[in-house]
Design a protein that fits this description.
This protein is an all-alpha fold and 198 residues long. 60% of the residues lie in helices and 0% in strands. The protein has a domain of 117 residues: Orthogonal Bundle (Cytochrome Bc1 Complex, Chain D, domain 2). The structure holds heme C. The site of heme C has 26 residues, from helix 2, helix 5, helix 6 and helix 7.
Amino acid sequence: MTWGRLVTCGRLVIGLLLIVGIFFLTKISFSSRSSPGAMESSIARKLRLWSIPKKYKSMPNAVVCSDAILAEAQAHWADHCATCHANNGSGDSMLGRTMYPPPPDMRQPATQSQSDGEIYYTINNGVRLTGMPAFGEPGDRDMDSWKLVCFIRHLPRLSPDEERRMQKLNPKTPDEIEEERQEEEFLNGGALNQQRTN
Ligand code: HEC
């Protein structure tokens, strides 16, 4: 075979590969409505956990999870994390439901079996190519993130009462604030009217 023919053959093969590549790309969905399969989620989580620097794996929580710290972290979660993760950590929130990948149910063993340091690392560094942002000051001493680890450990035991209290701390749209104001006004007015009639 002459050199010229070889080059033509090579071009043909590259052209064919390009066509096949474009075909597969257009077949892949870029929609975030579907959910990754169990296998994809498990492999992605394993890869992410492997990538966490070794020193974090055995790092104990830098704060003692007292009731006061837990209450603080609970309020922090309701304000900063619940939009995606939901107050109870299930991931069943308006945003969480349609994210790709979705936030996992953190009450389950896949999260709870991670070490404190691993959970801290994810909060403090976020997860690239997902919706999970990085929070707090970089490094291993961000106390707010360590306090959030206390709350994540508490998720499997969260009571309905605690969840109700958290709802009051969730970020609100101006419409919701106005609705609450009107409701309160109505209730106060109702109480006043009742006093007057008594
Ligand atoms: C904008 C949405 C969003 C917000 C806000 C958010 N997260 Fe996430 N988070 C995600 C997503 C999506 C994932 C899943 C990432 C993945 O699949 O690797 C995730 C994963 C995690 C994980 C890993 C869980 C596991 O099982 O490995 C932790 C821990 C976490 N988030 C903590 C937090 C905390 C604490 C906050 C608030 C300070 C927060 N997140 C705020 C979207 C969010």
